[in-house]
Amino acid sequence: MDLPARPFDLPRYLAVLPLFQEMTPPELLRLAEGCRLRRLQRGDTVFRVGEPCEEFHVAVTGQVKLFAISQAGQEKVIELIGPGQSFAEALMFTGKPYIINAQTLSDALVLSVGKDTVFGEISRDPRFAMRMLAGISRRLHGLVHDVQAYALHNGMQRVIGYLLRDLDDAPGAMPETDSGLMPLDGSGSGGCAPLCREDGRTREHRVSLPVSKATIASRLSMTPEYFSRVLHELEAEGLIEMDRREIRIPDTGRLARHPLQ
Known about the structure:
Protein name: CRP-like cAMP-binding protein
Strand order of the largest sheet: 1-2-9-4-7
Strand content: 15-25%
GO cellular component, one term: cytosol
Number of domains: 2
Oligomer: single chain
CATH architecture of the largest domain: Sandwich
Shape: elongated
InterPro entries: cNMP-bd_dom, cNMP-bd_dom_sf, Env_Response_Regulators, HTH_CRP, RmlC-like_jellyroll, WH-like_DNA-bd_sf, WH_DNA-bd_sf
Distance between the termini: 52 Å
CATH topology of the largest domain: Jelly Rolls
GO molecular function: DNA binding; DNA-binding transcription factor activity
Number of helices: 10
Helix content: 25-40%
Pfam family, one: HTH_Crp_2
Largest sheet: 5 strands, antiparallel
Mean pLDDT: 82
């Protein structure tokens, strides 16, 4: 359902997004005129493969999954989008239809910015194009990182990387706007220091799974059964404690070193 733009104060919201932070108030007002806001329910479609891509999108609230369907009907989650994250920018510039699907995983508020509006701002200020290019480059970096993880890391390493993804000071940790995985090779997780407190004591961390285990498993390119088995193995080793979707990590350094031991 499309919502009127004014009550939400779109210019104010746009101003806090990294892509638009350097824009002036008049530019933000002009940009807001080319936006639409939709309140979607869980399971609603944002776009489908084959539909024309005439805008890019930002998740204001809620979760959105980007996914593809194989000829056999199997779903592969490509990316999980959270609040404040944008998606479909690169495809918008190609002039081609969507090549993946987007669907809400929860009730969500999705902001869509029209192509004509974006092109107009680029023609007025080339710096806007540079900011968009930087965002697209970060996403490309995340996708390259995914390929490396799938090729070089086993399932245990990928799950541990996912659990430690929010630790900004973890070696090789990736920001949420990227893949959500972190490298767990010898150069990344060999040391405990960055994952321990400054006083030398172990560092505790808590993770709340934002979506179902099946969705996360697809994101990590593994079956739900294998994902659950890895979690139970980590719990049996005393590396994590699970309570439904809540996971407590008593010692992040020990968990990071686990695949190397």
